[in-house]
Amino acid sequence: MKKIITYGTFDLLHQGHINILKRAKEMGDYLIVGVTSENYDEQRGKLNVMQSLVERIENVKKTGLADQIIVEEYLGQKIQDIQKYDVDTFVIGSDWIGKFDYLKEYCNVVYLERTKGISSTELRSSKNGILKFGVVGNGRIAKRFVKEARFVSGIEVEYVFGRNQEKLSEFCKEFSLVDYYTDYNNFLQKVDAVYIALPHTLHYQFAKEALLSGKHVLCEKPMTLSAAETQELYSLATQKDLIIQEAIKTAYTPCFNHLLAVVKSGVIGNVKDIEATFTKLETNKQLREYDLSQGGGSLTELGSYPLCLIAKILGTEPQKVIYTDYKDTETGIDLMNKVILQYKNAIATATVGLGIKKEGNCVISGTRGYIYIPAPWWKTEYFEIRFEDTNQVKKVFVEFKDDGLRYEIAEFLKSIGRHKPTYKLTEKESVFIASIIEGYRNDTSESCIHLY
Ligand code: CTP
Questions:
Q1: In testing the pocket of ligand 1, which one of 5, 6, 9, 12 has its CB within 8 Å of the most ligand atoms?
Q2: Considering the domain 118-248 in this protein, what is its CATH number?
Q3: Most confident of the ranges 227-231, 258-262, 406-410
Q4: Which of 36, 177, 258, 413 could form a disulfide with 172 if both were Cys (CB 3.0 to 4.6 A apart)?
Q5: CB of 101 closer than 6 A to ligand 1?
Q6: 3-112 with 118-248: one CATH topology?
Q7: Is 408 exposed, middle or buried (0-12, 13-18, 19+ CB in 10 A)?
Q8: What is the share, in percent, of the chain residues with pLDDT greater than 70?
Q9: CATH code for the structural domain at 251-451
């Protein structure tokens, strides 16, 4: 029996897919089709696949051409599959010419002419259209965003809004954008969605105006500095059938999501303690981070990351919150802040600091074992599940590409396509994060300890 194998994502199954499956089937007696898993697609940078693995497998099944369907989950699996299933020929489209020659050591490799004029990418674009993005702000994070957005298909960053014409013009040139605006209303007319990368204190106003103009909003963290304002923005978005999403990049990364699934599966028992640290060695006091009037300080700057992790694992209803900080006498911002959240059956500590370097790791402790994520835990691609018995330790790797912003952009695009907010960072969780930051800024907590 001559066995053929082929692989693909098969998102929004189209004629190009059917043609290649037909031709592959004709080449032998038995066709095995490998469909990529969601994790694997994310790892290899294919970020805005619309359909779930189950839907894609169903569609391949319906063609009636596959004798066997397998899931492709990791790099290097093809070699193992070919040997395991005793495959004679590996078939793939001509867009991959040369890329799989290394498989010739194991079987025949055939590149078949790709069907012209159709692809999942085009279908995704024509389904959702190309989302025209405008960047609000032209600072450091805005630049990183434009670079990373290029890795996500289905969006075009075309415009930038700001105050300083000279800087905006440079920004436009550097990233080949269409144009810049200093008038927010005119800018909003031109785009479908905005990415807000302004100082924290301006997020609320600019996000609200964008939503009122019917634009989707991806807003830098913290979305606002008060629970009521964050809540209001989400309610407005729901009312207008728009998506608003908080740009805490960790929440959308593959390894972090894998980690959450492991914790929820109960492998380490019931979580009793979380310690997460994030410090930044930034000492330039001219920067926004050190400006109290612009919402600077270590908790507003960095607190969103550990608070997001804590909310995802222990929930959004701590019984008590204690802030312990010390402030910079010159600028008045909190240089170091330890926020202790006491839950019914657990404790969590978020430690953040500016101008001090601490080990940026995270430990999630449970009744059976604990998870250790080395620094920098907020952009990790590795963690260990540890137990009393050291022989039981498990090491988990899930790739994280470059800066990691592309995952949050892709998730935003998916949410817009599905008309449904993401589960990766929910309204409730964003409101919770804002409330913890607000509690500190308003000094409302009776347990707030300030050391000068
Ligand atoms: N394929 C093809 N002709 C097309 C599109 C895809 O022959 N017009 C082949 C690919 O070469 C591959 C298989 O179909 O062998 C599965 O490809 P996949 O990546 O799932 O499809 P694309 O439409 O190329 O997806 P995307 O646009 O997301 O890259």
A1: 9
A2: 3.40.50.720
A3: 227-231
A4: 177
A5: no
A6: yes
A7: buried
A8: 98
A9: 3.30.360.10
